[in-house]
Amino acid sequence: MASEPYFPEPEDGAGWRRLVDSDELRDVARIDAAALSKVEGVLVDLHEGPWAVVVIRRGHIVAEWLGVPALPSTTFDVCSCTKSFTSLAIGMLIEDGRPGDSASGNKLELDRRVDDFLPNVRVPDHPGKTEIEVGHLLSMTSGIPGEDRGFMGMAAGLGCGPFEIALGLARDRRGRSGADLVAAAGEIWDYSDLGFAQLSLVFREAAGMEIADFLAGRLFEPLGITNYGWDSHGGGGFLGPHTNAHTGLRLAARDMARVGYLLMRNGLWGTRRIVPEWWIDLATKPSQDLNPEYGYGFWSNASGTMWPALPRDGFAMRGFASNRCAILPSLDLVVARLGYGPPDLADESLLGPIAEAMLD
Predict the structure, then answer these.
(1) Rounded-to-integer distance, Cα 285 and Cα 171, Å
(2) According to a count of CB atoms within 10 Å of the terminal CB, is the N or C end of the chain lower?
(3) Cβ atoms 274, 218 nearer than 8 A
(4) Is residue 40 within 8 Å of residue 28, measured between CB atoms?
């Protein structure tokens, strides 16, 4: 890590400091400029559409590559990287240890039953549903059907809203229902948007405010992030609108890297504590034995299986269309890659060459 803590100015001000000269890249960031420059060609070959990559090494932008017609300020839907932001909000609220304006007065904890935070929603009866805890939703072990059962996202139709589908109150427009569990909580790992979406309702009840509003003041404002948007779900006669907990956050790559840098700095921004360090450590390590690469809304390399050739302290936010933010603390490296495709870029095809360009 850099000997002197550095934190970038907002993008509407001075922004990140940068290194361009090959000698500075070598001496300050310990990067081989020629080796690093070859990565851009690989990116262009993989996908010609709009995308943006920002590489942060030792607190400097050492590379920024843009796919036409993207600009440095272009925002992208980060897709399931949004789940990591929901995780941060939950960790921060647990740390607060307060009920906020919750009508129920419930304090949020990982082992609290989800039903405790849905007082005004009649969830379909099913053996085991009352045993689902907040931690099960965050770790994808709730037993609520997910991608392994064909559920990707929540395909709402004219006769229902997305939260009705998430709770099993209605079928999606393809006729599928998430009302029945596929296993008891904690027994299987299945990447479930239906389950994760319920965290929006849980958070609203526990905090008395939406996730997006909470993070606006507690995360985005102190980091100087102003160029962003976040979709809401529901309303129009259905449950909601509430923050979309599993997708729908829009950021520019430089600002995504800013959040990754915060996490690499253990949740500190200057002298201000933004995210509890204990939550970063917990959320970015394996949360269960069923899938050792998944924590609580984050992906983890602690087992060495996600990125075999990279350090085990690495972790990431990951989403569809190859949206990524990889954080490798032992390399003092953050790599943010946002775009509209390809559907699933292998992380190491980008991270490997960048790591190989490092001189130490």
Answers:
(1) 34
(2) C
(3) yes
(4) no
pTM of the complete model: 0.95
CA 103 – CA 212 distance, rounded (Å) = 20
Give Cα 34 to chain centroid, integer Å. Answer: 32
Residue 317 has pLDDT above 90, yes or no: yes
> Is the separation of the CB atoms in 264 and 327 below 8 Å?
yes
pLDDT digits (tens, 9 = 90+) for 171-184: 988 888 999 999 99
**Do residues 256 and 338 make contact, with C-beta atoms less than 8 angstroms apart?**
yes
Note the pLDDT of residue 122: 67
pLDDT single digits (tens) 125-138: 677 888 999 999 99
DSSP 8-state secondary structure symbol assigned to residue 294: B
CA dihedral 290, 296, 301, 305 (to 10 degrees): 20
Q: Taking a C-beta distance cutoff of 8 angstroms, is the pair 315, 131 a contact?
A: no
Cα dihedral 199/241/166/321 (nearest 10): -80
**Can you list the pairs that 34-43 forms with residues at least 24 positions away whose Cβ atoms lie under 8 Å?**
35/353, 35/356, 35/357, 36/62, 36/63, 36/353, 36/354, 36/357, 37/63, 38/353, 39/63, 39/65, 39/350, 39/353, 39/354, 39/357, 40/65, 42/349, 42/350, 42/353, 43/67, 43/350
Decide: 114 and 93 in contact? Cβ < 8 Å. Answer: no
- Could you tell me the two tokens for 94? 């647990």
Instruction: Name the amino acid, one letter, at 129.
Output: K
**pLDDT beyond 60 at 99:** no
CA distances from 238 to 129, 159, 163, 178 (A): 22, 9, 8, 17
Residue 121 has pLDDT above 90, yes or no: no
Average pLDDT over residues 345-359: 93
Place of tokens 């559920």: 151
Q: Which of 193, 88, 189 is nearest to 136 (CA)?
A: 189
User: Which of 217, 204, 202, 207 has its CA nearest to residue 99?
Assistant: 207
pLDDT at position 211 over 80: yes
Instruction: Average the pLDDT over 100-107 and give the result.
Output: 52
Distances (CA, A) of 3 to 55, 213, 311, 332: 19, 35, 20, 11
Of 157 and 165, the structure prediction assigns the larger pLDDT to: 165
> How far apart, in Å, are the Cα atoms of 311 and each of 306, 330, 339?
10, 7, 25
